[in-house]
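MODEL INPUT / OUTPUT PAIR
PAIR INDEX: 1
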Amino acid sequence: MLMDEEKWVENLKDIKDILDGAGVKYWLDLGTLLGAIRDGKFIPWDTDIDIGTMCTETDKLIGTIPEIERKGFKVDITDYGIFILKKPVTISISLYRLKGEKAWKLGYIPETPKFSKFARYLGLLGERILYRSLPSRTKMPYLRQKIAFALIPSFADHQTRKFSFRVHEWLGGKYCAFVIPKSYYENLDSISFYSMAFNIPSHVHDYLSLYYGENWRNPQQNWAYSQYPAIDYNFDIGKREDLSIWGYLKELKK
């Protein structure tokens, strides 16, 4: 399917205007950053628009949800990030956390667990249930999760989350971390992308090498998730049920 580039740019501009108005600190990331630096445009076979921000910006982001929805977007909130949906493209906002001198974001290992559909369902339920009280009318874009939300009382959210992830992992679901030195996000650079000014990580060529390897200048249409050099399978992410946005922000305040 050919990209509707004009619509992609329009959606990105709408979200940029809202985030800028709310004072959110963010940057172009992942495939969108790669296309911007290498090609000066979106990668034709990309599937979403990627933005990165620190998890500490979450409160500002959540405050923008009503305005985002007035623009016709739907919002899906998870432990991984915030996904803003409006055809023909999803804008994915990755939430980075800090640990020492590293910044990291949650990832998953794309293996097929036992009873894959049921395992995926539990994973989706676990990663979203704590956010159902937020001011998004989407909250859970999948009918089966909406049914679960209607049946599960809110006082049981944490236990439901814990149970969902424990069973998901028992069935073979696995998680990992994308790990980057935090210095790349401390003093952001900027570029013009479709005649709009965007922040980007500093030393962006080195940054892209960390994410895509030394050959990032060579387009690879069949890039696989497991190819990301930034994935650190030995990074200690702790217990999956403890990785909510709220849990991280609470730890920071201690």
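PAIR INDEX: 2
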Amino acid sequence: MLFMVIERFRDNDMLPVYEQVRERGRSLPDGLEYVDSWIEANFSRCFQLMRCDDPRLIQEWILGWRGCGATFEVVPVATSKETQAVVAAYLESSPGNRRPNSNPTRRN
């Protein structure tokens, strides 16, 4: 599974986090993979793409960063290619682009 981890730096100050990375590395538990990251131009947020099969690994990783001046939001995401595969069935379906085998009068 892919997760977008949105890290917010207190007072737009990323230096405490960067110091901790320099001293300890990313401190990833086994099974949690760092894919890539992007920093907002004003230094207020970092967007990190992470991969793992068990979301508890992200929780463990976040707990290791307590006290560094950052907060974390974790958002499960899918790649565009994966999403296109899901959407394709709707695009190729019957009139009105309904889901295949769906009952147009039934609401979920």
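PAIR 2 NOTE: The chain has a mean pLDDT of 88.
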